[in-house]
Design brief:
Blueprint (H helix, E strand, L loop, with lengths): L1 H14 L15 E6 L6 H14 L2 E6 L3 H9 L5 E5 H9 L4 E6 L2 E2 L2 E5 L12 E4 L5 H11 L9 E4 L5 H7 L4 E2 L5 H8 L2 E6 H4 L6 E6 H6 L1 H16 L3 H12 L3 H7 L3 E2 L7 H13 L9 H4 L5
Parallel strand pairs: 1-2, 1-3, 7-8, 7-9
Antiparallel strand pairs: 3-11, 4-11, 5-12, 6-9, 6-10
Helix pairs in contact: 2-10, 2-11, 6-7, 7-12
């Protein structure tokens, strides 16, 4: 087990090395700068970057960040044109007056509740320590949903915010008893043997929203044709991203083992990435019910489908 933990730490270090921070300088008029974290939830935008320039001459410049706070700072200050980001973080930015629009989902499903091997049900989480990456996340919502299946609330557990890279090893060492986070970190915990899947996202919240593709109002207003081209090709890339192709893209960008990727990609899909009013209304209801925000932005103010 100790050898596996050391190997995991080395893999995580490699995966997050050479992170671009503060390097999102302005590009040419044929370039779209998109911020991302190296997670499987970003694969649709990574796949599009491979193909869009060949098809249209519009270049996608990917700017990699190591944390949501760094990525959000770049997005909110217009150092990038858009991002693949936790949709609740984008909602919060919009609520605070930042000019941006959610133009598509990042993926469908793809989240799991990972718990230590001695936990058999949601009821066993009472009094335990559970990690999420950020309070403003679907992972927080899914934790609340999971606890609700056993009549528990968030007050029945100790919630801690950890960096995604720290969660698998924290579970293995007994520092935490479970976690929910963007992939492939759930799959890492399973691969390591430190934990197991208690719930998949679709078991708790059908058609759940997690990461979204957002563009700045500045980019949309100043380059409407490029914005339209980018979004259309992004959705096309998602529809064409089957498990085999997704694994090829993931291996190029994420530096993960075949085992981890095979586990992770069982839980996620990238087709049909429109944000509908119905699914957004469900998200808004949960955001309010679980105290993430008391005034999330309205669908018509935040979501843009009319390219």
């Amino acid at each position: 087990m100790k050898k596996k933990i050391i190997s995991l730490a080395l893999a995580l270090s490699l995966a997050f090395s050479a992170v671009s921070c503060g390097k999102a300088d302005k590009g040419g008029d044929d370039t779209v700068k998109i911020a991302y974290l190296p997670i499987t939830h970003s694969l649709a935008v990574l796949e599009e970057a491979e193909e869009l320039e060949k098809q249209s001459g519009l270049k996608v410049e990917l700017v990699k960040y190591g944390s949501w706070s760094e990525l959000l700072d770049a997005l909110n200050s217009n150092r990038v044109d858009g991002a693949s980001v936790l949709i609740e973080l984008a909602m919060k930015s919009k609520q605070e007056g930042i000019g941006l629009k959610a133009v598509a989902l990042g993926h469908r499903d793809g989240n799991v509740i990972i718990v230590s091997n001695d936990i058999e049900s949601a009821a066993d989480l009472k009094g335990k320590t559970f990690a999420i990456p950020h309070r403003q996340s679907s992972h927080n919502i899914l934790l609340n949903d999971a606890l609700g299946t056993a009549g528990l609330t968030i007050d029945d557990v100790t919630v801690t915010e950890l960096a995604p890279t720290e969660m698998p090893s924290a579970l293995a060492s007994g520092q935490i008893d479970g976690y929910c986070v963007a992939e492939p970190f759930g799959a890492m915990g399973v691969s390591l043997g430190a934990g197991k899947v208690l719930f998949s996202s679709e078991e708790l919240w059908k058609d759940s929203l997690c990461c979204g593709l957002v563009l700045t109002d500045k980019f949309i207003d100043e380059r409407p044709d490029d914005a339209k081209n980018f979004v259309e090709n992004y959705k096309k890339a998602g529809n064409e991203l089957d498990k085999e192709k997704a694994k090829e893209v993931a291996k190029k960008y994420l530096s993960q083992t075949d085992e981890v990727l095979d586990i992770s990609l069982q839980w996620i899909s990238y087709n049909d990435l429109d944000i509908t009013e119905e699914t957004y209304a469900q998200l808004v209801e949960k955001v309010k019910d679980y105290g993430l925000s008391d005034a999330p932005p309205a669908y018509e103010d935040f979501v843009k489908n009319d390219f």
